[in-house]
Fold:
Amino acid sequence: MGAQLQLTASAKVREAPRAVHVHGGSARSIGIEQRLRSLAAIASASGLRLAALSYLAVCVAVPLLIIHAEGLRHGLDSLVNDVTRPAALHAIGLTVWTAALMTVINTVMGVLTAYVLVTYRFPGKALLNALVGLPLAIPTLIAGVMLVILYGPQTAIGSFFEKQLGTRILFAPPGIVLALLFVSYPFVVRTVQPALLALDGDQSEAAYTLGASGWYTFRRVILPAITPAVLTGALLSFARALGEFGAVVIVAGNIPMRSQMASVYIYAQVEAGDMQAASGVSMVLLWIAFGLTFGAEWLARKYSAMPVQTAQAGVSPTVARQSP
Amino acid sequence: MMQTRARRSLVPVILIGIVALYAILLVGVPVAAMLQAAFGKGITVFLSALITPDAIHAFAITLLLASGACAFNLIAGLVLAWVLVRQQFAGKRVLSALVDAPFVIAPIIIGAVLIIVFGRGGWLTIPGVHIAFALPGMLLAMIIVSMPFVTREVMPVLAELGPEQEEGAYTLGAGRFYTFRRIVLPELRWALLYGLAQTFSRALGEFGAIIVIGGAIQGVTETTTIYLFRALDDRNAIGAYSASILLALLSAVLLSIMEVFNRRRPRAFVTEETSL
Structure:
């Protein structure tokens, strides 16, 4: 907050000459009325900026600061203690591995879905596209309710799994992964779709014409070009899964050391009044999510310097082999 | 030669089949199961579950809070987008990147933060002013959670628009507010509507943050999501399913209407990833 206030103040000073210039022509000849007007303009501009930046601060920076201050209130040792309780570690572990598994499945199926939706024309395509986007419109709590209706122990599918296969779906990892898949299905599809649309068909058509197989073309021409979008989508779904609460509290329940996810653990600690423990696990989730986001951004920047090259390098062996 | 051509023409069919099957199993079947569960006993059972006093009260609270979050985020989002696009200052790029951060911060964490600040023994408790376990805290939670939508819809349109027209209007003597209302606002119309629809839909479905800060007090701080969560616990399945359908339908219809409007926007302004 302090830094931002300071920032606003220094920006105000810097903007003053520009504002005078815009409103009054030569600085020496401006009348008192114009000077007042330009002062008012500066005041309203910096007032707007102050309002806008406080809004951003209250919604983003302040919550982050508060969670860290509360988590670290009794020092680092106590924070480590809170986070390494067996139930907390189990919840974090369960959340990370189910989210990772979901992200792998979702990335493969999301890219395939986007590819099919962009490349082919077929009856029912608009319907499929709508179905893919539907989870964005359904509150995640309700996604959880849907899965309970479908896979609950009393239902045909639920009892089949329990009696024949000996595994439950609800209150167990399969249900968690299914819920996370449902909730984040559109993320990869909707980030990859525009990237695929933006590719002009020339390169892949050239590769086809020159005899490259569809898979080869996809792997060497299309995939390198859409990798940043795929990465973004995968990351979005992973970050979302880390913090998902509504779908997961219903499907996984609140059984510590068994099916309790990190977000549900936080909820349970808040309800129990243990704010330090809640803040500690929150911090772990935030650091994982932000760490991955920054890591991916760094990777993408490193990578995006090259995609054209990579794509060309991918085609050129084919060109060399096939040209007469 | 014939063989390869035959195989190639099969590939699309297989790929389309895989994707369609996946989408139907993952999304279609659960949605159908819920529709069946809610309407299976007839439309009257469905409707009578919706008009219990608790359900009506919860729905009214939901609409009230979601409208409040929309109104606040509309104004504040507009101002933030304007400042981030039109004004020049140090650190602007970092701040613009922060706009999307609420997508990474779990709503349950926002709930925890609000309890730390406003809860019993919290940092900021003013006697006589109820924020935690009351509607103001829930409104604050909804505002924070749905904060990015309006801003990120408006920013690209403002950037595309450029400052030329506004500067032209100033030169001709128009006031700042007049210029904004007559020149800028009409151009932002669709972006604003689309951002608002997303904000509203997000606020309707919010659960984690508001159950924590609101405390789920029956008949007082119970929104429709919290109501249906309790209904599930109370084995009032039909109440839970009916409320679920109501919310999902409202949200889906709202977003599909906006999707139609979204296509009407000038092409250059349509960002493909807006639906995220």
Remarks:
- Residues 1-26, 306-324 of chain A have pLDDT under 50 and may be disordered.
